[in-house]
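Aggregate trends can hide what the representation actually does to any particular protein. The sequence in question and its structure tokens are set out directly beneath this paragraph.
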Amino acid sequence: MITERKSEIIQEKVLPLVKRYLKDHVENYTIEIENASKPGDSWLGLMYNITIRDHRGDGKTILHVIAKMAPVQGPYRELLSVREIYCREIFVYDEVIPHFLKLLEDKGLRNTFCPFAKKYITTKNSCGETIVMENMKEKGFKSYHHRVLTDYSHAQLIMKELGRFHALSYALRDQNPKVYQHLEENCQESFLNTSIYESAIGIITTLGKAVLDTYDPIQDQREFEALKKSLQNASSALKPLFMEETYGKHSVINHGDPQIRNILFKYEDPVQTDLPTELCLIDWQLSRVASPVLDIQFFLCASTDKALRECQYENLVQDYYQSLSSFLRQLGSDPDVLIPFEILQRDLKNCGAFALYLSIWVLALNMKENENIPDLYNNNLTKEMIIKQFTEVPNEAYIQNIRNIVSDFIKYEYNF
């Protein structure tokens, strides 16, 4: 349903941008717009399905696109550094992805790996930052329910494709360092490295304390003391983990937020119809230069459960590295030089705090019921109201998920 407030936003901000693109490409068209998301589908975007039809002929569809627009409410924009993260996503679509696609084209690999939606037009206008991109669902891609942790077949595909995605950074740095340096300089941490940092730490420690309070300090002493110490050190421990200089030449351009809600899947196996065969990475607002471990460890914590990790964690890490190595060789570079497996293992051990803290926050958002989700069109939201909603524990399952991550990190001997 398009409310009056939504209609205003569409008329003032979305339609002019779409028409600007169409002016140079299409004549005599009609535009149909409808909501593209339900409450909880997107915390950082107003999403619209747009269908452009030929007005001259038989009314056939010319184009299906998605318009993704930044929230306009002041408190929301300030608290979540909305302008910064939208400028980051626009940079990824305008510059990072085109350079990656050129590399793939030059190597004759464009048809074997292309997990990106096509971008049509973007704008950085303040309070109107918008990306108009291909509607991948019209090409057969589907979303995976963000409140359901993923199964092995989806996890394996994601890990393999993250490996190939990260290989593009290593190959580009190796073969065209000047271009990569430009991308790297413009992909430093943009979300947590702003005024949001202290608020983020407050949200994480408040939620973490709720988990800590469920432990018996005597019977669960190991887990209790480990989490307690981690939360006490959160402010100083987190920041170095998303700084590029921590990882140097072993860093890559991360997706930044590769949880299951930010990945679309295609299912084209005629026998196993629930087996994913292809994916598309979306939502690049948190893209940053850092260790590739930040992507893979966060995905494994935020989108898989303890049972899957117990059976497949090491296999999934191996799947990731084998995919990265194989694709890097196809791209013409040497993985043994650029990212030895020992470096990956070192970073897995040292970066656990990042995955834990972000999972504490993200899982609390993902597991909320619809009625507890902030309304991005509500002009009466205050910063305090938003933080209150962000720090509410959604249910007991959330507590258990975080406890499981803590137990797993202790078992793996990861630092957190």
In short: The chain has a mean pLDDT of 93. The radius of gyration is 21 Å.
